[in-house]
Amino acid sequence: MSLALRARAAIDNGDLLTATQAAKALVLERRDAPEGYFLLALAAEQAGQVDNALRLFQAAVERGRDPEHLAQWARLLSLVRRDGDAARAARGALAQAPRDARTLDTIGCVLTRLGNHESAIAPFSQAVARDPGNPDYRYNLAAASSFTGRIEAARTQYEAILEADPGHARAHYALAILSRQTPQANHVARLETALANASTDDARLRIRYALAKELEDLGDRAAFGHLAVANAHQKRVSGYDFAQDEEIFDALELLFRQPSGESYDGPDHSDAAPIFVVGMPRTGTTLIDRILSSHRDVASAGELQAMPVALKRLAGTPSRTVIDAATIAASRDIEPARLGLAYIEQAGPHLPETTPRFIDKLPANFLYIGHIAHALPKARIVCLRRNPMDTVWSNYKNLFASQSAYYAYSYDLLDTARYYARFDRLMRRWSTLFPDRVLQLSYEGLVADQETQTRRLIEFCGLEWDDNCLDFHVNSSAVATPSAAQVRRPINADAVGRWRRHAEALEPARAWFEAQGIDTA
Length: 521
What we know:
By secondary structure, the chain is mainly alpha-helical. The protein has 25 helices and five strands. It has helices spanning 3-12, 16-29, 35-46, 50-62, 67-79, 83-95, 101-113, 117-130, 135-147, 151-164, 169-178, 188-197, 201-217, 222-238, 243-255, 285-293, 306-315, 325-330, 336-347, 369-375, 388-396, 413-433, 443-448, 450-460, 507-515; strands spanning 274-278, 298-300, 357-360, 380-385, 438-442. Helix 4 packs antiparallel against helix 5 (67-79), helix 5 (67-79) packs parallel to helix 7 (101-113) and helix 11 runs parallel beside helix 13.
């Protein structure tokens, strides 16, 4: 067996010592060849040596433009949020016309992570064509198809996965949220069979969420029972304690106790002032994003991590958590000018080239409003507000990324109610400190009077009126959130007061809000 094959086999088996020895021998044998450096990079990454792995990937790429090497380098660059470098490496890999399915799929995953869903379709399609039996490749193509509005193409891929593997839980859940289910067309019976046959906790979790989604679409109150079981399990597994988030809110309130004159007039590019759309998740932020991005002068950059990443890097705190009390405290010493420039640099690869304004639609940016207001004084911030009980219900019933610390509260009704209360308190503080910078828009008000509220939104953002903003549902740009199906329909009141269907089960949250003096009417 050659040194290269020995190293690859050892990496696949997790034998990093053998892999490293073989790869080093390959480098010594041919110092100008890229393969040894590439294999050393894979081993280093697997060992958790990320910085070393990045240097070794670069050394490999400098010695040859192998598409596999470029794709894997792009993947790791995207994971450490070096988005511009990742985009260039991914484009370089595509330019080499890769033929193996794994490399094509990797390129597609990088493009997806960077928010370039349309460009990901081609490499994902080629990966499936070369290896149609791989369910991961099909799933990635289906997801990208869904994000870009190719609903029937996505459905075809998900069904192909389930035909080969009837227990594929991710495909079941993806199909459930792909469109609204009806009595004539739903998957409830199939999901019940899949749940009965599920062999892992993760599979049962996803299938229960899928069942809950479909039953909720059908108006069946049994949806809540599935969610209660799934969420109780997730809370046990996560070990979440509300005190974790309470520390973050406390630290923000301590840092931003009173108005501060310290701000920055903005770098040269500040005329392309960002519009931040923030709020609790699943409250209509995607709807606002679609309305604004339907304007001729605005494009959506998606849910950027640019502000959290910029702040974390400049704060220099050692924790692996993006936002925590220590990072917030350390941010006191960051000059607004540095933060504004760091944000624009991080956001740069995602910014549109064809419009003067862009939207950053990360809901959790409501935590960073104080930093945004100081570092980007020309930015506009729109916070969507929704009835507290509908907010609790929409969070409780949604399967967020299980590893994301942003949404760990959502597995428990009272945790979610407590989170909403602190969110509400923080938004009141931001509005007091920055009264001209933050527009709080009511979801219910928008649904009840679309044109008046849309005009208010457009005026606040400093834009001229554009009739297209009322026809947001024909906007063809990608949507990579669970709201994809909803925002491709005209505005409607279907989701207003939806919590009342489960009023009895949600009573603990309502009673808690009442005790806190929070109106749920």
